Amino acid sequence: MPPPPSTPKVRTHPLGDSALLAELGTRLDTALNTRAIALANALRKRRDVRQAVAGYASVTVHFDPDQTTHDALAAAIQRLASKRPPMAEPGRLHRIPVVYDGPDLEAVAAILGLTPAQIAEIHSKPIYRVFLVGFVPGWAYLGPLPQELELPRRHVPRTQVPAGSVAIAGRQSGIYPLPTPGGWHLIGRTSVKLFLPEADPPCLFRAGDRVKFFASRA
Amino acid sequence: MKEVLRVKKPGLLTTVQDLGRPNAIAAGVPPGGAMDRFAHRAANLLVANDESAATLECTLNGPELVALEPCLVAVTGADFDPRVNGEPQPTWTGIFLSQGDELSFAARRHGGRAYIAVAGGIAADKWLGSMSTYLIAKRGGMHGRQLLSGDVVSAATEAYAPAISGRHLAPDQRPDYNDHALHVIAGPHMRRLGAEGRKALFSSEFKVSRDADRMGYRLEGPSLDASGEELLSFGLAAGALQVPRSGQPILLMADHQTAGGYPVVATVASAAMPVAAQLLPGDTLTFAEVSLESARKLRAAQRDALDSLKS
Predict the structure, then answer these.
(1) Which residue on chain B is closest to A36 by alpha carbon?
(2) Which of A96, A128, A204, B155 has the CA that lies 20 to 30 A from B16?
(3) To the nearest whole angstrom, how far is the Cα of B269 from the nearest Cα of chain A?
(4) Which chain B residues are closer than 8 Å to A144 by Cβ?
(5) Contacts of A10 in chain B (CB under 8 A)
(6) Distance CA A199, CA A192 (A)
(7) How far is A99 from A120, CA to CA, in rounded Å?
C-alpha cells in the first residue's frame, strides 16, 4: 500500500448541526492516527471549537454553531490538514503489570493453537500505541495486536466484565476501566487503575501514549 | 449555600443535571447534562437563574419535595401535573413556595422528563466542571447518585436576580412534545443505506424499545442495512443515529458512549433533541430530513423563545 500523500483530502460530514466528522483516511495506521491527534490539538485552540476528539483516522469536532458554520469549519480543517504534520512525538510510555490468568486464556490458547504461556509472551512483547481514548471513561484502544493473537469478538458478550481485565479482540488490546458489559476475550488482569475520577483528565492513558505490558505473578 | 428542599419521596429517577461536561469527551467521559436542554434552560430562566445552573431532572414521575424555607421554583418539560399542597399548579411558570409547602406530582400527562429549577440554582457535587450526575462513574450531582428520601437539596445563597413569581413561557413558545417527527441531518454513512434504506428511514414509524435510558434508545422498526467495510472507531455526538449489524437503530442521548464504530446514518438536529428527550419506551417516532440551514433556523427560534424570558 502506498504511503499517505503529504496533503491528503479530508472528508468532512455533518454530525448534526453542532458537530462534524473529519475523516483523514480509513486504514488503521500510526501515521494517520498521529495526524488525527495533531489536527485535534490544533482545532482545540480555536474559539469556535468546543472540543475535538481524535479517532483512529478521524477527528470529531464539536463546535459552537453561533460562532461558525459547518462549511467554514470544514474549510479551516482542510487548511490545517494541508500543513506539514508535526514530528510524531514518542508519547509517554506506560509499563503495565499483567497477571495472565484471565477466564478466556485457556480457550483463546486452544483456538490459536498456542499455550497460555505463549499467549502471555506474545501479548507482552510489543509496545502498543494508544490510538483512541473513548467509549467509556478511561477506555483506550491499544494496537496493533500481533497477528498471531487476532480473533473475532466473543459470540455472546459478557454482561459484566470486572474492572482491570486485560482483553484482546481483532488487532486490538484494551483494559476495562470500569465494570461494564464487554465482548472482548479476557486474558489477564492488572491492578493499575485506568479510570482516575479525581484527576483531570480522569484517565491514565492519552491518545498517542505508548503501553508495554509485562507478566506479573500477582 | 442554603438548604431549600427536603426530599420526602424521590420519584423513580430524579438526578441533578446541568449543561454537562463537553470537555470531558476527550477522556471518554460522556457529555451528560439535562436530556431536554430547552426545558432545563427555560426552568432556570423562569426563576431568574443563569441557564447553566443545575436543575432536577425527574424521570417518568416526580418527587415529593418540602420547602425548608421560602423559595421560587419552576417546573418545565414533561407535564406530571404539579401540585403545591395538593393544589394544581401551572407548568413553565415561576411559583413561590412558602416554608413547609409541599411540591408533588399527581400523574403523568405527557412526556418523560420534567425539570425543577430553584432560584439561586441547585448546589451539588461538581465533577470535571459540571454538577451533572453520571450514575455509572458515581460522580457529580447528589454524591453521584439519584435523589433518595431524606436528601436535602441546597441552593446557592445569592439568587441571580430578585425572585418574581408568575414568569411564564406561553405554550406556542415551547417545543411541541406531541410532534414525534424528529428533524435529522444526514450523517457520515447515510449513503450506505441506499435509496431503499433511505426511504425506509424517512417513511417508517419507529418505536422506542424498553432498552432506553440516558445513554441512548434502541429503536424498533424496519431493519436497516448500513453494512459495508468495517469502520475504524470515531468520536460520537448526542443525537447520532447508529445502525449496528442487527439493523435496529440506536439513538445516542446525553450519557452516550463517546466513541464507536457503527455507521451513523443521521443525527438529530439540536432543536429536535428536546422532543427526543421526552420519548419513553413504547412511544413511536418518525424521522424527517432537514438541511443544516433549516436546523439553524429551528435552533434560532428556540433561542428567541428562551431569550424572551430574560426581559
Answers:
(1) B234
(2) A204
(3) 5
(4) none
(5) none
(6) 15
(7) 9
Query: Nearest Cβ partner of A132 from B187, B233, B237?
Result: B233
Please state, in angstroms and rounded to a whole number, the distance separating the CA atoms of residues A42 and B165.
47
User: What's the gap in Å between the CA of B77 and the closest CA on chain A?
Assistant: 22
Residue B289 in grid coordinates: 430530513
pLDDT, tens digit (0-9, with 9 covering 90-100), for A97-131 = 999 999 999 999 999 999 999 999 999 999 999 99
Taking the Cβ of residue A55 and every Cβ of chain B, the question of whether any pair is shorter than 8 Å is answered with: yes
C-alpha distances out from residue B209 to A34, A70, A115, B113, B244, Å: 40, 33, 44, 17, 15
Question: pLDDT at position A155, please?
Answer: 75
Give contacts of B296 with chain A, Cβ < 8 Å. Answer: 17, 65, 69
**Exposure string for B88-123, b = 16+ CB within 10 A, e = fewer:** ebebbbbbbbeeebebbbeebeebbbbbbbbbbbbb
Cβ neighbours around A44 below 10 Å, total:
16
**Chain A neighbours among B 261-280 (CB < 8 Å)?**
264, 267-271
User: Which residues, numbered 71 to 130 in chain A, qualify as contacts with chain B under a Cβ-Cβ cut-off of 8 Å?
Assistant: none
**CA closest to A203 among chain B residues:** B27
List CB contacts (< 8 A) between A62 and chain B. Answer: 22, 25, 237
**Residue matched to cell numbers 462549511:** A71
C-alpha–C-alpha distance, residues A200 and B283, integer Å: 39
Q: Write down the ipTM of this complex.
A: 0.94
How does DSSP classify residue B160? Answer: S
As to burial, measured by CB atoms within 10 angstroms (0-12 exposed, 13-18 middle, 19+ buried), residue A45 is: exposed
Contact B235 A28 (CB under 8 A): no
* Pair B269, B241: CB distance under 8 Å: no
Cell of B293: 440551514
Dump pLDDT digits (tens) for B99-152: 999 999 999 999 999 999 999 999 999 999 999 999 989 999 999 999 999 999
CB contact under 8 A, B235 and A16: no
pTM: 0.94
Report the 10 Å Cβ neighbour count for B287.
25
CA atoms of A123 and A146, how far apart (whole Å): 7
AA letter at B200: A
Are β-strands A58-63 and A49-54 bridged in parallel, bridged antiparallel, or unpaired? Answer: antiparallel
